[in-house]
Amino acid sequence: MKVSADIRALVEQRKAGYSLEAPFYLSEEIFALDMEAIFRKHWIQVAVEPDVPEPGDYVTVELGHDSILIVRDDDMQVRAFHNVCRHRGARLCNADKGTVGNIVCPYHSWTYNLNGDLMFAEHMGEKFDRCKHSLKSVHVENLAGLIFVCLADEPPADFAAMRAAMEPYLLPHNLADTKVAAQIDVLEKGNWKLTMENNRECYHCVANHPELTISLYEYGFGYQRSPANAEGMEAFERTCIERAAEWEAMSLPSAEIEQLLDTTGFRTQRLPLDRSGESQTLDARVASKKLLGKFEQADLGGLSFWTQPNSWHHFMSDHIVTFSVIPLSAGETLVRTKWLVHKDAQEGVDYDVKNLTAVWNATNDQDRALVEYSQCGAGSSAYEPGPYSPFTEGLVEKFSAWYIGRLAEQIGA
After folding, report:
1. Alpha carbon distance 203, 272 (integer Å)
2. Which helix (H) or strand (E) holds 261?
């Protein structure tokens, strides 16, 4: 797509170590470029395997003007298609989720099987070739139960590198053997990049997230050492070393992997939880009595996994929380949060949904407000890019650098 000279200049002149210029958060033209350069060309995390536990189960996801249909086929494989009939383009599945035997167009009843093949199309004549009118497939990858799609004709090839690095970290939590205990969608009146920037730092956590910081060490995501906190930071570092040795002995990797500037950027690390914590709850104890996978021990810390451009996830011994960010416009963003527990856990017996979701419900609402404050500020004539903290906002800089790099690649800057 063509871009104006002003946008090209903004991309070329971006100052490293500083927040982005205001148009990156406000401009609908830049938003359209984001959708083309980022959300149509990269691996986007959109669902989890338990969203479609049985053959015929489906979910739909909207990425810009494209509706994506994710369905489990009869061979238990997860497939993805454009949610568009090959007859006259009607949307096939109009609910957020559901179950079908076959995929039937509501307009003229063209019928597709779960592999996307056109099986039935009445009144099309003897010369009509059904094989030429199958559903258009979308690239899909299943990373240890996290579902990614890519709309590009040729998706980034380095997904395999992320899979090789991350499967040893994620597979012990056995996400595929969980169920979605709760899902909450939050509409933030802010640009998607502000949502992601807010997630990539915990500079704001102590002042804004009292529920989250019950179980999270404040030193865990970057901190400037000082005489006042030196003792606490040293104690935290010792705890990390001791717990990492325990986890490695249990075949639970914990070491940081950071590849945030790769095309398919990602980062992971397992850190201990505070107060001898077991889980991200209001009392730092497990939210579900039924532990995941083959775990027999509750205090296994918190495994965090971030992906560029749109997701982050927290894996604990008893439950998993996944976050997927979907841009809606320059000033609106959908944040979809799912809480996963063991598929055999019983609500009211093994877990209580209110307790399970309390920390991140509160945190999401607090973050929504912060993103909206930032969106308002970006619209002020007084706004200018401000410096990132080298101690606590390094991951924000890496997100911004990754983002600008993708735009530069798109426009040939």
Report:
1. 19
2. none
Mean pLDDT of the chain, nearest integer: 96
Q: What is the three-class DSSP state of 395?
A: helix
In this structure, which CATH number among 3.90.380.10, 1.10.10.10, 3.30.930.10, 3.50.70.10 belongs to the domain 159-411? 3.90.380.10
Going by the DSSP 8-state scheme, the letter that residue 364 receives in this structure is H
Instruction: Name, in order, each residue with C-beta under 8 angstroms of 372's C-beta and a sequence gap of 6 or more.
Output: 188, 189, 190
Is 47-143's fold the same as 159-411's?
no
Three-point CA angle 352, 356, 360, nearest 5°:
150
CB-based contacts of 189, cutoff 8 Å, min separation 6: 331, 332, 371, 372, 375
- Over 90: is that where the pLDDT of 218 sits? no
CA quadruple 279, 283, 287, 293: dihedral, nearest 10: 30
Lowest mean pLDDT: which of 114-118, 143-147, 204-208, 358-362? 204-208
Half-sphere CA count of 216, side-chain side, radius 13 A: 23
Largest CA distance in the chain: 83
Residue 293: per-residue pLDDT: 97
Domain ranges of the chain: 47-143, 159-411
Q: 142, exposed or middle or buried, with CB in 10 Å at 0-12, 13-18, 19+?
A: middle
How far is CA 284 from each of CA 139, 199, 211, 364, rounded to the nearest angstrom? 39, 21, 10, 18
Which residue type is seen at 377?
A: G
The sign of the CA dihedral 237, 314, 149, 186 is: negative
The owner of tokens 């950071």 is 258
Q: How far is CA 322 from CA 34, 73, 131, 179, 340, in A?
A: 23, 24, 38, 12, 8
User: Residue 228 pLDDT more than 90?
Assistant: no
> CA Rg, the chain, in Å?
22
CB-based contact 196:314 (threshold 8 Å): no
- Distances in whole angstroms, Cα of residue 78 to Cα of each of 47, 140, 141, 143: 11, 8, 8, 11
What residue has token string 């890496």?
398
Architecture per CATH, 47-143: 3-layer Sandwich (2.102)
Task: Indicate the residue type of 89.
Answer: G
Task: Indicate if the pLDDT at residue 387 is higher than 90.
Answer: yes
